[in-house]
Each structure stands twice: as C-alpha cells, then as structure tokens.
Design brief:
This protein is mainly alpha-helical. Helices cover 47% and strands 5% of the residues. Helix 1 links the parallel strand 1 and strand 2. Helix 7 packs across helix 12. The model has no long low-confidence stretch (mean pLDDT 96). The structure holds flavin-adenine dinucleotide and iron/sulfur cluster. Iron/sulfur cluster binds next to helix 14, helix 18 and helix 19.
Length: 498
C-alpha cells in the first residue's frame, strides 16, 4: 500500500491530527455524507447541522484534495468514489463491522489506528487485562505518568496529590450567573446557510425526523474555530473551571464548562495537545492547580476511560439492566417538551437540550440521569436518547456514561454506587429550588419534590438489589427508619406529573 491510497474520513475524524499527519499528508481525502446515517434516528436538529457543517467546511478547506460524496449509504458513496481507501478506526461497533466487511470486499485497504484518543486500544487492553476491578482513578494516574502530565520528574503528582476533587465541589455563588466571560461563539457562514437549506428540504420531504429546535450554531465546526474556542476557554474560564464544576445555576447554561466536547468528538482537536495546553496555563500562573487538574482529569481521565470501556466491555454491555428498569421514555421527554414539567431543575435541563442540544455534566448526571434512574427508564432507550438529543452524543460515549455511571445498569462496573440523589443535593448545588413549585424538604403531599420522594421510592424498589453494596448501607438504613415509607412509595407509583 502506498501513501497515495485515499483516506476516507468519517464525520468524527475531521481534524489535522487525522488528515495532516506526515503519513496522511499526501493522500486524497474522501468524505461521505450518508443520508441513511442522518435519517436513521431522531437526531437533534442542531446536531445534524453541526456534523454536516463540519464535513462541508473541511471539504472546502482541503479544496482539490478532498472529494465530498453525497450518497444514500456509505457503501453507495464508496462505490461511487470507485477506488479503495484507507480509514482510521471508527467510533462504533456498527462502523467497525462495516469497515471489516469492506476490508473483506477489498473496498478498504487498511484500518489505521485512531489519533482521536490519547491511548491506543491495544495499550488499554494490556493495562486492563488481569485487573480485578477497573477503576478510573487508577487508569487516570497511569495516564498522567505515561504521558508526563502534571507529574514531577520523580513520577509524583505536581502539588503532592493526584486528586483535587475535594476543592472542586463548591456550591454556586448567590448570583444569577457565575460571572465568567462568555464562551466562544462561532459565526455562521455560507456553508451553514447551505446546510440549513438542505436540512429544511429533507424535513419538508419527510426524509429526516429531528427533535429540538433549530438555532444559530453554537459549537465549533472547523479546526480554526475549535482552536479559538479552546484558547478562549483556557484564557478566560479555565481558572474558574474547578471550584464550581458541580454547581448549577438556572440563569447560566455554560457555567465555567469548556463546551469542547462537540469539537473534540468531531475529531477537530487533538486531546493530548488540549491537555498539554491546559498544563501550560498552570506553569504560566494563569490557572490554579485545582482547576487545571480538574480539567485534565476530564479529558486525560474520563474521556479516555469512557472510550476504552466502550471497546473493552464490548457490544453486550449495552444490554445490561441490573436494576431491571423497564419504564418507556415518556413522550414529553423524547420530544424535549419542558412545558409538561413543573420541576424547575428538570424543566431547565430539558429546555437546554431542546434549545441547544446541550446540558452541562452535572445537569446530565444529577438532574436528567438521576430522574431517569428514579423513574426506572429502560437504560437502552435512554442511551439512544442521549446519543441522539445531544450535540456531542456518539455511540462510544454513551454506554459507560449512561448504562454505567448514570443508571447503574451494569451493577457497578463503571461506578461504585448509583448516582441517585434527592432534592437536598440539587438544592445544595443549585439555585433551582428557590423558585420551584415543589419543596426539596417535602416528600408527601402536593408540594412533595419529585426528586426527594422519587429517591426514596427508587431506594425502596431496589433495596434488595443494592443490599450487597457497602456504600449503600447508610441510605438503606435511612430508608428503614422512614416513618412514611409506604405512603411515599404509593404516592410516587401514581405520580403522573413532575
Ligand atoms: C448521562 C451522561 C451523558 C453524557 N453524554 C455525553 C455525550 O453524549 N458526549 C460527551 O462527549 N460527553 C457526554 N457526557 C460527559 C460530559 O457530561 C460531557 O462531556 C460534558 O458535559 C460536555 O460539556 P463540556 O465540553 O462543556 O465539558 P466540561 O465539563 O468542560 O469537560 C471538559 C471535557 O471533558 C470531557 N469529558 C468529561 N467527562 C466526560 C465523560 N464522562 N465522558 C466523555 N467525555 C468527558 C469532554 O470532552 C469535555 O469536553 C455525558 C455524561 C453523562 C453523565
Ligand atoms: S424542589 Fe425538587 S423539583 Fe424543584 S428544583 Fe428543587 S429538586 Fe428540582
């Protein structure tokens, strides 16, 4: 195989660390817009826009070097291109099966490793094989040492400790917004206008069925935009990233979050470069250690961890349902309709997904995920919902985050205890409860907070299943002491409005 074999890039492989490496620089690039991929699921309108915009922008940037084929399927696109290609490891089991088939047919000459993640899959398997329990913290420390990030020359962590999470759990300030400078906002151009017209046309013809509202593009779609978004974050928001990482304010949808998951997951930013640039802000004194470590942990730790668990645990992981949760997703949830919801925390998070295809981490985990867990939503359907309704949703990122972390459907592989909490937690970490129609302290009656009452009802339902988990012994003994336990359970069984 010579360097001249064209490189087929999937829509999540669009950065220079894919197409501008010494090995790939000489290759022609093929991009395929597959209508079947757009139409297969009810994706958020803004997500469809972002992916198409990113692919078309790259095709424009590469000029004669790139061919953009619009086809019904990837296979049809490849057939139309007419020459064998090479491709980087894709981001889903389904795409991997497709590539394996295409290799057999001779349409794909080779599958190259992906530069979209810092550690290779083979390396992760070598680290993980033979370990009793897979623990993110162990992996993260290994990553820090291996890539020499925030470590002293003798291998000890900078600042003497690996984990500064304890400094990063401050409640929100008593203000409507965190008060940090605005995040980077891209400016739409001709390419975006073309994408919008095409999506409108597909919608009118009934060939796509998106959810959410259309709106100005909020996330980076090109290398240059992603670099600008990163620089703006590092310069103006990284310093405050740490302390309020877990806090929520109804009037501040970004807080100090980076808004970089979408460009990272489109492959526009090299994750190791992002981590090194954050580390440099510590050395230059622009950001404190707790913020830099907190951010590095997200990318070098969590993002890599989630990617590798996807492959390591295999496709069957998606079928896990340790808590036997079977409730179908309500219509208002699937259609992103916050008008049906009174609970202010849930309404705000759902409205954010409808309007921006985004909610920040703690809204995803402790509001949306927590609610779904308490109400027993079927984990697989919920995984599909997160993958389609969020701008940064991709197949690899869902299972460990949703099945594992958020729903405990894997029985404790990804998290040592379920992320379930009542209204007291949400009240401590947000300003939602102040103006809510419910009261986080009340669990019975018309003012009973659906999260507080829902928490106890969920615990009651799962008491036997969770009895073996040492970290659940305190909540379970609290449940046993609950004077109105039966009444709360009965009330939540019949609750239809939240
Ligand atoms: C139920 C649930 C669903 C989620 N769905 C997605 C998803 O579809 N796509 C996605 O990229 N992330 C997902 N996450 C992880 C995380 O919530 C988002 O990465 C983050 O909110 C994106 O916003 P940000 O860029 O402002 O992140 P920040 O809070 O600023 O974090 C910085 C970066 O760290 C990375 N990161 C941090 N935690 C994770 C994680 N658990 N998994 C993967 N990357 C992580 C992201 O690349 C993110 O951009 C999910 C988490 C939960 C609990
Ligand atoms: S009172 Fe309950 S439902 Fe209302 S915002 Fe607080 S936690 Fe959410």
């Amino acid at each position: 195989m010579g360097d001249e074999t064209p490189l087929w890039l999937f829509g999540d492989q669009l950065g220079r660390h894919f197409h501008a490496t010494p090995e790939n620089r000489g290759r022609e690039v093929l991009l395929i817009e597959s209508e079947a991929a757009l139409a297969r699921r009810p994706f958020h309108r803004q997500k469809l826009h972002l992916v198409l915009s990113a692919m078309r922008h790259l095709a424009g940037e590469l000029g004669d070097r790139a061919t953009l084929v619009r086809a019904r399927t990837y296979r049809e696109g490849l057939a139309r291109f007419g020459r064998p290609v090479v491709v980087h490891e894709p981001g889903s089991h389904a795409a991997e099966r497709l590539v394996a088939g295409l290799i057999e047919e001779g349409r794909v000459e080779a599958e190259l490793p992906t530069p979209g993640f810092i550690r290779s899959r083979r390396d992760f398997a070598a680290w993980a094989d033979g370990r009793g329990r897979l623990v993110m913290e162990d992996f993260y420390r290994d990553q820090r040492r291996r890539f020499a990030i925030l470590v002293e020359p003798d291998g000890d962590p900078v600042g003497g400790t690996w984990n500064l999470d304890r400094d990063n759990r401050e409640p929100p300030p008593h203000r409507a917004a965190l008060g940090v400078p605005r995040a980077y906002r891209p400016r739409e151009d001709e390419v975006d206008r073309g994408v919008r017209d095409d999506l409108d046309r597909l919608l009118r013809a009934g060939r796509i069925r998106p959810v959410g509202v259309d709106g100005p593009r909020l996330f980076a779609a090109t290398h240059d935009e992603a670099r600008r978004a990163l620089r703006r974050f590092l310069t103006t928001r990284l310093a405050s990233f740490g302390p309020h990482q877990d806090a929520m304010l109804a009037g501040d949808w970004t807080m100090s979050h980076a808004l970089l998951s979408a460009p990272l997951n489109l492959g526009l930013l090299d994750p190791l470069a992002v981590v090194r640039e954050a580390e440099a802000r510590l050395r230059s004194g622009e950001a404190p250690l707790n913020s830099v470590e907190g951010f590095v942990r997200q990318i070098l730790g969590w993002r890599e961890w989630i990617w590798h668990l996807y492959w390591y645990l295999g496709p069957s992981y998606l079928g896990r349902n340790a808590l036997d949760a079977r409730t179908p997703l309500p219509d208002w949830w699937r259609r992103l309709d916050p008008s049906r919801v009174s609970a202010r925390c849930l309404r705000t998070a759902l409205a954010g997904v409808r309007d921006r295809a985004y909610a920040h981490h703690i809204q995803r985990l402790m509001v949306l995920g927590n609610f779904a867990l308490q109400r027993g939503f079927a984990p697989r359907a919920l995984t599909e919902w997160f993958a389609t309704a969020f701008v940064d949703g991709h197949p690899w990122v869902m299972p460990a985050n949703v099945i594992g972390m958020s729903q405990y459907a894997d029985g404790g592989v990804a998290a040592t205890k379920p992320y379930a909490a009542g209204g007291a937690y949400i009240n401590a970490m947000s300003d939602y409860c102040r103006d809510c129609r419910y009261d986080p302290r009340i669990r019975l009656g018309p003012d009973a907070c659906p999260f507080t009452a829902g928490y106890w009802a969920w615990l009651d339902r799962n008491a036997t299943r969770l009895a073996g988990n040492r970290r659940m012994s305190r909540p379970l003994s609290g449940l046993r002491r609950l004077a109105d336990r039966e009444a709360v359970v009965e009330q939540e069984e019949h609750r239809r409005r939240y």
